[in-house]
Structure formats: structure tokens, C-alpha cells
Amino acid sequence: MANAAQTTVKKTENAKFNSNFASWVIPICIIVGVLIYKFVMGNPSNFEGGIVNETAEPVKEGAGHWLGIIYKGGFIVPILMGLILLNLSIAIERFITIRKAAGKGSAQTFVAKIRSLLSAGNVDAAIKECDVQQGSVANVVKSALIKYKEMEIETGMDVDQKVLAIQKEVEEATTLELPMLEKNLVITATLASVSTLVALLGTVLGMIRAFSALGTGGAPDSAQLAAGISEALINTALGIMNSAIAIVLYSTFTSQIDKITYAIDEAGYSIVQTFAAKNK
Description:
Blueprint: H1 2-41, H2 63-71, H3 76-102, H4 107-119, H5 123-133, H6 135-153, H7 159-182, H8 185-214, H9 222-278
């Protein structure tokens, strides 16, 4: 009972962390993006003569050259930097969460071992194996095995009712585990489209600036024209890069969650079928 209570408390703490993670990481990433833009990219050492303004030229080579170029992308750049940091933060958080959910060993090997122990009638050893494996698959299997033991000594239900009870336990345990795996992935999916739209806004603003330079009387201001085009292309590049990263991360995490879900389904099916076969 003590171990079950500790597990429940731990799950509650993890759920609170996951639910609060997005609420504080979003503003922090935006603030950090602004600070990076202002103090790192906008460092005077990144520009010739140590002067930072619209017409300042980045140093000719080195890291400062690229930082200076990105800085000249305008005020949309810190927003995009914040979105990039947010994307990476969510990716790290999801990687840790899904890695824990997968357990300490191979899920397929774990399911095969549980199936073997149940076939031998050693339910207690199967439950201990869940404690060793840990993770979402092990949590669901452990809940099902505990119900399995209860149904073995239950006298007031027929076999079909017992099988349904075990199936219901598997479904309920799965319902509790899956939302934790999918938490915050909606942010990654949203970043895939929002990054492109924010970059498009920066592109449009840069092109407006470029055409304004062309529209001036007399000879066009080549410095303003170049600055406008540069601003447009920099924002486009940052937005497309972050969007591409978000799409890859979303696909990767979704694939990993599908593998865990498949292992849960396979384990639940094995437990139910084993119980039904032994109690015909």
C-alpha cells in the first residue's frame, strides 16, 4: 500500500509539472530570445567600428559576422528566437518524458517476459518485473496484473465478467498514461505553422521597407534597399528553420508514442487472453 501511495504521489507531481511547464517556459523563452537579440547579436563587437544602427555593417568574418547579420533582421528576430528556444525546450521535456515512459528496457522484451511468466502462472513475479521495468507500459501492465490476481480469487463473477473487468482495468490505466505522453505536443505542432507565419510577417515588413527605399524621389537609397531585403530574408530563414525542426520533432515523438501504445495494447491483450484461456 505504501508503494502504491508513493507511486500515486509521484504521478501527481509529474502531472503538475507537465501541466505547468508550458505556462512558465513560454514567457521565459520569449524573454531569453529578446536578451539574446539585444546583448549577444546586438553586441557592438559584431559590427564594424563598434557602432550598432540600421546602416552598420557586420564584421567581415567570424561568429560576430553571422550574429550581426541576424541582428539586422529587425524586431521580429527576437520573437523568432523565442519560438526557436521554446521549440527546443519542449523537445527536451518531451524527450525526457517519453524516455521515462518507455521504461528501463525494451518494451517488446518486457511484454514477452510478462507473457511467459503468466503462462507459468507466476503472477507475483510478473508484478515484480513491472517494478523493475517502470514506465507507462509497466504501469498499465501492473494495474492489469493486480486486477488479474483479484479476479482469480473472485467467486461472485463468471469468467466473461472477470475478463471484462480486466479489460476495463487496462483501458482505464491506459487512459491515465497516454495524456502524459501527448502533453505539450500540441505546442510543437503549433510552432510548425506559427513560425512560418511570424517569419512571413517579418518578410512582408522587410519588403515594405525595401520598396519604400525604391519609391523615394531621385536615386534609390541602396543602403535602405539592402537592409529591407536582408531583413526579409533573415526572418524567412529563421522561421522556415524552426518550422522544419518542429515538424521533424513532432513526427519523431508521435512515432515513439505509437510504439509505446502498441506495446501497451499487446501486453493488455496477452493478459486478457491468458486469463481467459486458464479459466475456461
